[in-house]
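Hi Y.,

Following your request, here is the sequence exactly as I used it, all 277 residues.
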Amino acid sequence: MRDSSMKPFNTFPTTAAQQLQYILFDIDDTITTEGLLTYAAYKALWDLYGHGFTVIPVTGRPAGWCDMIIRQWPVDAVVGENGAFAFYKKSREPLAGYQVLTHPNVHEDAQQKLVHLRGACLAQVSGCRVAKDQFARRYDLAIDFCEDEPDLGLEAAYQIRDICEAMGAVAKVSSIHVNAWFGAYDKLSMAEMLLTRVFKDAEYKNKSLFFGDSPNDEPMFGFFPHSCAVANILPFLDKLNKKPAYISEAESGLGFAQSISHLLELTPKRSQPTALV
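Below is the corresponding structure, written out as tokens. Let me know if you'd prefer a different format.
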């Protein structure tokens, strides 16, 4: 059953849509479906980009993924490893390259602590394993509970989170991993830093729309007045103190694509974002 506090995204108001500039979104199970970036969801990104929106994934995925995303996807920036850093383009010119903004609260020397976290999780939660993309990470540990087999379920995910928190780490549950790190940062604090320092926009809050699907998106849901969860948020709702304002009709990438289609119907095409300085 859907939470009545979340409105269907197809009721998103035209006046709010026409004030938007920044479209921020999680990746796994928000724009992907069963691990794949579908044609519909990827086309939605290109449609947003071509429409003149500033397009920014905000993900728990690693630096290695983010290097590919900023180079090859139609995006202006990407926040990675749950807020440890952001990669951003200085312009939309081909081969313009990208710059790196690192959160000041990351612990550059945390690798040994992460090794201890890894050992504790693997010893205490049967069947859990280090995520296969761990080799591409710089600042966090990702413990896989359902991206690959076996699917351990949410009970195991919260057990992993509790182990990490007991050892002094920050730990967040996504739809596939538990991400743990040392340092006071999250998706929201890095997104705010990116929008104010790089895009130099003090009025970004009401000009942003965020899409997500799981508990590690909660800071974003709570901060941005315009936020939407894809329909597969439902199993997590009782774990969220701060819920999104809207919910899509469909799940995962299809829900995202349908929501973007509706959004674009409400908004005139705007001029392309200016080059960053």
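Residues 252-266 form the longest helix (15 residues).

Thanks again,
Q.
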